[in-house]
Amino acid sequence: MARKARSFEARLTRWTFLAALPALVGFGIMLWIADAPAPGWIAFALTVGWLIAVAFTARHRFTYAILTLTNLMESLKEGSFTLRGTHARKPGVLGEATDHINVLASSLQRQRVASQEAGALLGKVVDEIDIAVLTFDELERLTFINPAGERLLGLDHNTLLKRPAASLELSSVLRGPAAATLQRTFPGGDGPWDVRRRIFRQEGHRRHLLVITDVSRALREEERRAWHQLIRVLGHEINNSLAPIRSTASTLARLAQREPLPDDWREDMAEGLGLVGKRAESLRRFMRGYTMLARLPPPQKRRLKIAPLIARVAAFDPRKRALVSAGPPVTLTADPDQIEQALLNLVKNAIDATEENNGEVTIRWRLESDQAIVEVLDDGPGIAGSENLFVPFFTTKPGGSGIGLALGRQIAEAHNGTLTLENRRGGNGCVATLSLPVEPKL
Fold first, then answer.
1. CA-to-CA distance for 81 and 89, rounded, in angstroms?
2. CA distance linking residue 99 with residue 1, whole number of Å
3. Which residues does residue 437 pair with via DSSP β-bridges, in sequence order?
4. Which of 56, 82, 382, 402 has its CA 20 to 30 A from that of 27?
5. Structure confidence at residue 2 (pLDDT)
6. Which of 215, 142, 229 is nearest to 182 (CA)?
7. What share of the chain is helix, strand, coil (3-state, %, to 5)?
8. CA separation, residue 248 to residues 245, 270, 272 (Å)
9. Whole-number Cα distances in Å, 43 to 16, 193, 194, 406
10. Predicted model pTM
11. pLDDT tens-digit map of 101-139
């Protein structure tokens, strides 16, 4: 690099002399022909000296400017963004080049500060979260661990760093699925643990990121809420049935103790026993619905064409035949019985909603990306609130069981799908939307 710089400087000096050479030669020839006295030759020598001085001055100034730009670029290469060139305010190409380098240095400095601040924030977050974060190199040696990871493994980071995953009993986790739930015991606690694994690159080298989360607390809290909800619903329904049974039994007992019996005692007895039977049947239906929700078997999936299924569902209810708006050919991999049951419940709810105004019920479907969207629309009064619609045994209909929507959502989620119910936009009634994954095309 230095040899090339000297060569460039030598060429610059040589071309400066060559530019003035014709004038010097002409001047010398004129002096020679005119047989000029000594003062003329002295003037010639001074001119040559002046040209030499100008050439070396121009060489020095140009070289200094180039070296300034070189130093600025070298500073950027070394990662120092604080140096600035002083020629930025001067007109010309040199000033413009210096200005661009200064702007680049300022931009890189701002980016470095932002990156350092983001890195510091990320480091604080990783240190404070109650989730173990570990990274391993290509040889599965631990390269980073946060305080939560230290607590999980029961050792400090100085002891853990550079240790292989096998000695930490994490080799199977590093080579396992990208997301999994494990039930195992670490020095820092028992599972279950949610494990997430990702591959990333750092300075061109392959790294493993391992995130281990204790989900036992969240599961216990969710289980507690589920038990609370179940006990509340069961208690409410059982009390609704037992209260009239107890009251009727007490009335019938008093009636049986009367002497003599009243003339209409048979009618009173039959009415009371009928009420007891009615409430017992209501309680039996409730328990059967609960059993249906609790014992829903895993889906037995097979290839299923959606058009014939919807045609059967549309004609199932004897009260009203649903209209079918045909969509594109769709094939699912699903449990036909469960999907049919979910759609039957949606159509039944839609028909119930249109009984008062004799509205229409329409079933339609379409494809969106890798999802089949089945919609059941009605012209009923709509819903006032949707927060409890999918709560088991919650119903707004007299005599309703409150399990249709809950069962439908359970079936949809068992097929990796979704079920929603909302009021129609721009019209009366509701739209129930069942979304299911489509069989991939081979």
1. 19
2. 25
3. 371
4. 56
5. 43
6. 215
7. 55, 20, 30
8. 5, 11, 6
9. 20, 96, 94, 110
10. 0.44
11. 778 888 888 888 888 787 788 778 888 888 889 999 988
- Count of beta carbons in the 10 Å neighbourhood of residue 84: 14
Q: Which helix (H) or strand (E) holds 331?
A: strand 331-334
Amino acid identity for residue 286 in this structure: F
Say if strands 185-186 and 430-437 run parallel, antiparallel, or are unpaired.
Answer: unpaired
Cβ–Cβ < 8 Å for 47, 5: no
CA–CA separation, 18 vs 29, rounded Å?
A: 17
CB 252 within 8 A of CB 269: yes
Token look-up 């590093």 returns: 174
Residue 104 backbone dihedrals phi, psi, to 5 degrees? -60, -45
Please give the structure tokens belonging to residue 211.
């995130």
197 neighbors 209 (Cβ within 8 angstroms)? yes
Tokens 């974060």 sit at which residue? 133
Looking at the chain, the whole-number percentage of residues with pLDDT higher than 70 is 75
Tell me the C-alpha distance between 164 and 139, whole Å: 8
- Joined tokens for residue 272: 């009371």
> Burial code of 252-273, b = ≥16 C-beta within 10 A, e = fewer?
beeeeeeeeeeeeeeeeeeebe
306-364 pLDDT, tens digit per residue, is 999 999 899 888 888 899 998 999 889 999 888 988 898 899 889 888 888 888 999 99
